[in-house]
Amino acid sequence: MTTKIAYVLAGLLGLGMIFIGGRFILAPHTAVLGFGVNFDPQSDYSFYYTKGIRDIFSGLLICAFALRRDRISLSLVLLLGTIIPTIDLTIVLSKDYTSMSNAIPHISAIIMCVGIGLALLITKPSFNQKLKSTI
Questions:
Q1: Side-chain half-sphere of 22: how many Cα atoms within 13 Å?
Q2: Is residue 31 within 8 Å of 52, Cβ to Cβ?
Q3: What's the whole-model pTM score?
Q4: What's the rounded Cα separation, in Å, for the pair 116 and 107?
Q5: What are the tens digits of pLDDT across the range 50-74?
Q6: Nearest to 102 by CA among 50, 45, 51, 34
Q7: Which of 58, 102, 95 is nearest to 80 (CA)?
Q8: H-helix or E-strand containing 39?
Q9: Contact 92, 98 (CB under 8 A)
Q10: Is 41 left (phi over 0), alpha (psi -120 to 50) or beta?
């Protein structure tokens, strides 16, 4: 049961990442304000598009592993992927103009990635999961 919940939560996390990435590509001004850093409307949007595609790729990877029920790969991607929201958090907190409310999405992402990743990693695969992996 824990594994099923973890797969669903991971899938939702992946969809959230796809949404965030899409927002950086389609509405960079709105996305960057939600991220927690200032936005320069005169700037080149290349950075925002780069961040957007990074988030879309990460979300697709998480969704793919969750749909395949690839427990080990999904847990490793989530655990190793915590570097992204951790660095994002340090960037946001390094700015004088940000508040704790700007940090909450990043902290939430770290907690979710670690929690789901550990839950999947320490859960023993069921007989059905072992059977599927041998087929």
A1: 8
A2: yes
A3: 0.83
A4: 14
A5: 989 999 999 999 999 999 999 999 9
A6: 34
A7: 58
A8: none
A9: yes
A10: alpha
Rounded to 5, what percent of the chain is helix, strand, coil? Answer: 80, 0, 20
Tokens describing residue 135: 């087929």
Q: Residue 34 CB: number of other CB atoms within 10 A?
A: 13
Length of the chain, in residues: 135
CB 65 within 8 A of CB 10: yes
Domains of the chain: which residue ranges?
Answer: 2-128
- Token representation of residue 35: 């991220």
Rg (CA), the chain: 17
Please name the amino acid found at residue 108: S
Tokens representing 2 are: 């824990």
